[in-house]
Amino acid sequence: MKRMKKQSENIRSQMSDAQRLSELRIVLMGYRAAGKSSTGNSILGREEFDLKASAQCVRRHGEVADRHITVIEAPGWWMNEPVEESPELLKQEIVLSVSLCPPGAHAVLLIIRVDIGFKETERKALQGHLDLLGERVWNHTIVLFTCGDSLLDTSIEKHIESEGEDLQWLLDKCGNRYHVLNNQNRSDDTQIKELLEKIEETVTQNNGCHFEIDRKILQETDGRKKMKEQIDKLREDIRSLTMSGDDGSDSCSLGSSAYGSFRSRSGSDSIFGSSRSRDSSHTSYVSGAIKKHNSMDLIPPNCEWILIYFVLFLFFYFEIFQYTLVSF
């Protein structure tokens, strides 16, 4: 623990007034109920963040200690929940959070409650969610302990020692950068000023650079988000169809619309080469099935859903294939 204190003191002694930043961009991350919103309010000195959980990122601005501060709060995960079990929307928001303060965040504050034990399950969940941002994010991360008043007369160093190897692993991963915050004592400006100084120390450690997420990670996340929006829209179309009647006319219209959408997005020679003959055969098959349904009424009522799902299958198959090619 003495080594951790010494490292922080050495960095602070190297900083001059010329290295103070007039602008700081901060991203708050952590599990649910860790104190992210309260931390954002403490940093800005006013009630800017709603204490209720949000499914999307929240961005706020303010002037603090002669600096323009931008704070992004990312939605939190359940404390013991592995990243594999987290909703896709949550993971997308975590990735997109660091892009909401261009050109990049000066620091990611990893919020942990000091009054709750930090063991292997919490460590694995935290590691998995932060790894969504890539390995480089750890170079810009500071562990921020909230509920500092619960320590009473115990120093944070003694608390870290008592918690064991999982918390020590986390601190080592973050370059032993940490800070303690008492969110209940808003009148103490010292703790916020010291936090901002530690963020500037982190920038100094990174040679004056901010965190910039890998462009490929952003592209993949944006692609999955757009695909989900398309799926949701088609589901809504199908839901509307079930409420419009059983005459079959709307179902054929939907099938034609969905197929037209997938063809327009996937028929490019640059992606599929000489696939026009295959595209033409799909067109003949689908249009033939629709004509039979309309004119000869040979398809039983329940089979109209087979036609719809077949068209949707073609649509998503080529969507995924196209996205895979673009990613590479």
From TrEMBL:
<feature type="compositionally biased region" description="Low complexity">
    <location>
        <begin position="261"/>
        <end position="275"/>
    </location>
</feature>
<dbReference type="GO" id="GO:0005525">
    <property type="term" value="F:GTP binding"/>
</dbReference>
<dbReference type="InterPro" id="IPR045058">
    <property type="entry name" value="GIMA/IAN/Toc"/>
</dbReference>
<feature type="region of interest" description="Disordered">
    <location>
        <begin position="261"/>
        <end position="281"/>
    </location>
</feature>
<keyword id="KW-0547">Nucleotide-binding</keyword>
<keyword id="KW-0175">Coiled coil</keyword>
<keyword id="KW-1133">Transmembrane helix</keyword>
<feature type="transmembrane region" description="Helical">
    <location>
        <begin position="306"/>
        <end position="325"/>
    </location>
</feature>
<dbReference type="Pfam" id="PF04548">
    <property type="entry name" value="AIG1"/>
</dbReference>
<feature type="domain" description="AIG1-type G">
    <location>
        <begin position="21"/>
        <end position="220"/>
    </location>
</feature>
<keyword id="KW-0812">Transmembrane</keyword>
<keyword id="KW-0472">Membrane</keyword>
<feature type="coiled-coil region">
    <location>
        <begin position="217"/>
        <end position="244"/>
    </location>
</feature>
<protein>
    <recommendedName>
        <fullName>AIG1-type G domain-containing protein</fullName>
    </recommendedName>
</protein>
<comment type="similarity">
    <text>Belongs to the TRAFAC class TrmE-Era-EngA-EngB-Septin-like GTPase superfamily. AIG1/Toc34/Toc159-like paraseptin GTPase family. IAN subfamily.</text>
</comment>
<keyword id="KW-0342">GTP-binding</keyword>
<dbReference type="InterPro" id="IPR006703">
    <property type="entry name" value="G_AIG1"/>
</dbReference>
<dbReference type="InterPro" id="IPR027417">
    <property type="entry name" value="P-loop_NTPase"/>
</dbReference>
